[in-house]
Fold:
Amino acid sequence: MSQTGPSIHFAQAVSRSTSGILIDFPTLNVLGFLCYSISTVSFLYSPLIRQQYAARNPSAPEPTVRFNDVAFAVHAIILCLLTYSQFWPGLWGFKSGKTQRMSRPVAGVFWGSIIALLVSVVLVMVNGNHKGHDSEKWAWIDVMYTFSWVKLTVTVVKYMPQAWANYQRKSTVGWSVGQLNLDFIGGILSILQLIIDSSLQGDWSGITGNPVKLGLGNVSIFFDVVFMTQHYVLYRQARHEDNDSGSEEPLLHQ
Structure:
């Protein structure tokens, strides 16, 4: 999947402006990929987490997390931080508007996710056996699952403000279509990898054991279709008019 937005970063660097992109998207991207990085690294390298996963999934004891998942997550968080930093004029000198701040609904999701993570840690410490090392009750693997579900939640939410903003403006100017193409291909390949891994294990419970990866692929594909429809079909004329005039779109109001 290519939800990091490298093409957004490049487009902003060329135009030296963050016009046309809501800060909601990169803010949730940073949170989401930080959680995804922690989760994938833990499922691939933590002996405790892998042991607890095997105890809960005896028919398919190996998690369907691979090195490429970790490489993608780490690469993504780096690019997300870089993209997010471009909304701070003092760092890059890019043109940015006074309204470029996180909207209230997105702020609610952001802080709600932080609270959910803290609650999961408290539950393990209070209700878990042997300080969360017993997989039969609340365990540290549940905290890792919470990190994964936070990533899925913010992925669902992060696209909505931009899709709505495009609808209100009747334009996709400022929103990089290159990201959509990469996202769409990445989503398909991510689901295919999950299916192949489960097939090689000879047990399809590997898919249910990694529902977040399956969900991320499907959510990405769905919103990519929405954005491509806006870009290529619904608001195609607005894009051509902007290219002809050479004008710059005003910053979006949240």
